[in-house]
Design goal:
The complex is a heterodimer of chains A (100) and B (167).
Chain A: H1 4-24, H2 28-53, H3 57-87
Helix pairs in contact in A: 1-2, 2-3
Chain B: H1 2-23, H2 27-47, H3 51-76, H4 88-112, H5 126-135, H6 138-160, H7 163-166
Classes of the chains: A mainly alpha (100), B mainly alpha (167).
Chain lengths: 100, 167
């Protein structure tokens, strides 16, 4: 049986990679995929702790997180399609209408 | 021992493909790399004795959500778009900040989050998860179904209606 800690470390590495993607990229869809990566890292943490403490609540939370990630992906991609119709680009720096 | 070999192999696969998502210029390659990373994470879920969640990860994430991403990338024909590189300062701060964050987190976890192994096997199959989901979590479950309905309506409204008619 693999120690819980190693799963947590893998999850931390994946989360940091996701943060890096959000901070350094400009392509909206790539930023979105980085967010999905971070969501999955957190799911892995949930499952690791669920096994550690023999709690099934962690699994249920992962289930809900997956459902909400699906909803988020649908709405977010629709926003990008709308943005593409207006600006012909999905560069997030071009979407500056509401920027202060 | 074979368990450790599987863990390290698929952990390496997950991290390498995640790096490819972040570093590759072409979003199609990024999306396919993300699918591969999700498959490796599904193997992690099997190692964590949650086969039901592993199946959901493959079907829902790698199957449905990533197909949606790929579909939008193809629909908008994004491969041809040149992505402007970010400003060097932002790039440096992004890489340095996320590296510091990751190294700090890994250091903290490897130093302080040492736990003994769980007592016995913990098999969370579809039956256990389903019973708990429909007993204690029935209200959040219904809320999620309403949220998904709202997401469908919102996505249709945002992407389907022509903008000329609305403005």
């Amino acid at each position: 049986m693999i120690p819980t800690q190693w799963f947590l470390i893998l999850s931390a590495i994946l989360f940091a990679i996701g943060v890096c993607g959000v901070l350094t990229r400009k392509n909206g869809i790539t930023i979105f995929m980085s967010i999905e990566l971070m969501v999955n890292a957190v799911n892995l943490t949930f499952l690791a702790y669920a096994r550690q403490f023999h709690q099934i609540h962690g699994l249920i939370f992962v289930f809900f997180v997956m459902a909400i990630a699906a909803a988020e992906a649908a709405v977010g991609l629709a926003i990008f399609i709308s943005l593409f119709h207006h600006r012909a680009t999905i560069d997030v720096d071009e979407a500056n209408l509401m920027r202060w | 021992m074979i368990e450790y070999a599987v863990f390290f192999f698929f952990a390496a696969v997950a991290v390498i493909f995640a790096l490819m998502v972040v570093l590759h210029r072409n979003p199609v390659v990024g999306a396919l790399a993300l699918v591969a990373s999700f498959f490796a994470l599904a193997v992690m879920y099997v190692l964590l004795e949650a086969p039901f969640l592993a199946a959901l990860q493959v079907i829902v994430y790698a199957g449905a959500i990533m197909v949606l991403f790929l579909f939008v990338i193809m629909l908008l024909n994004l491969q041809k778009q040149r992505e402007e590189p970010t400003r060097p300062l932002q790039q440096f701060l992004g890489y340095a900040g996320s590296a510091a964050f990751g190294i700090g987190l890994v250091y903290y976890l490897s130093k302080y989050a040492v736990m003994e192994l769980p007592a016995g096997p913990f098999i969370a199959d579809a039956r256990t998860v389903g019973i708990r989901l429909f007993e204690a979590y029935i209200f959040p479950f219904e809320m999620v179904s309403i949220l998904l309905l709202a997401a469908i309506v919102g996505a249709l409204l945002l992407s389907g209606v022509r903008t000329e008619e609305r403005t």
